[in-house]
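Q: Joint fold for the lines below.
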Amino acid sequence: MSFEWPWQYNFPPFFTLQPNVDTRQKQLAAWCSLALSYCRHHKLYTLGIMEVQECPVFNHKNIDRKLSTEAILIVFEELRKKGNLEWLDKNKTQCLVMWRRPEEWGKLIYQWVSKNGMVNTVFTLYELANGDDTESEEFHGLEEWMLIRSLQALQTDGKAEVITMDDGKGVKFF
Amino acid sequence: MLSIDECMSKQMKTFKYNLEEFASKHKQEIHKSSQFRVQFQEMCATIGVDPLASGKGFCWQSQRLLEMLGVGDFYHKLGLQIIEVCLALKHLHGGERVHHQGRGKSAQDVSQDDLVRAIKKLKAMENGFGVISVGSSYLVQSVPAELNMDHTVVLQLAEKKGYISVSEIRESLKWERERVCHVLEHLLKEGLAWLDSQASGEPQYWLPALFSELTSLDVTPEETNQMTP
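A: Joint structure:
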């Protein structure tokens, strides 16, 4: 299924940081929403600033408009403030995108586990995120850093325990 | 948030005030023309105003002012659209049929079609008008933009393509640069226009309201919910 662009994506001024404060607020909110939907659709969990500039979201070749690096960073700052983004380095070249929060992922994973009667089973992280059994699940392909955070959220709730095994980490669900 | 009646009378007042301002600026040009008169009569019929009745809101002086606006004036259209919507929504609220008084135009009931059309127009206007659904009816939240004749004329120019630039305005209206910039600044401030600084040549000022109309979006119930400013 291809990504559905919102009308603003075809509106040239959408790619110019608006001078009017109120308009800019609306614009940034729309950008945050678009960025998150795009990442969700393409299952992007990490973003590098260099590649991001050439990404279709921020560089709309058809109408010859692109969001400047300055503006992209402003959008990312908004996402960070909302808890949807985390910088991996001080220089702000790489970031984690959380279009779904760890708690939400945890809930999805636990639902699958209990639905399949697999409570009290131990899984390796690999099995959970990349195993054949979970192929049709939304959390399939979840990157390890996010998986761990999600499981930690479940741990806080007493629904799981992250354990260290010989060749990596695993998790037991309760 | 205003009720529909308050919204209507506030808009009428703003409408009237702007007309009076315009007329005072163009005193010498006030004259009667048969074309204006016909258009004026039709407009009155549409909004259910009888220009010959006294004490009904429009006196003869205002009528002459209305004549001066002529057809195709953005604010004139805007005023009509607002009134049209308010009438349509009044129908929805009261459960009664609202009749347009006929003079030149045959009497029309405000139908569901009118309502849908009016809401679509509202959606396209986006000048701070929010339609909020309350159960199965709608409240109109109005934040009228402050527009004078200079603004109106520029908006009218921009209507053709959905955007306008400083040179295009200067060429059309022969205004000084300062006057043009003043108007564009105001439109940006009111949220009616967005700046496009990546256009080739010079910056362009786009009207999202017209853009929406050009790309003809349909109104869905979810979208109506989202329209609060």
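Q: Anything notable?
A: The mean pLDDT of chain B is 56. The interface with chain A takes residues 188-189, 191, 194-199, 204, 206, 208, 211-212, 215, 217 of chain B (CB under 8 Å).
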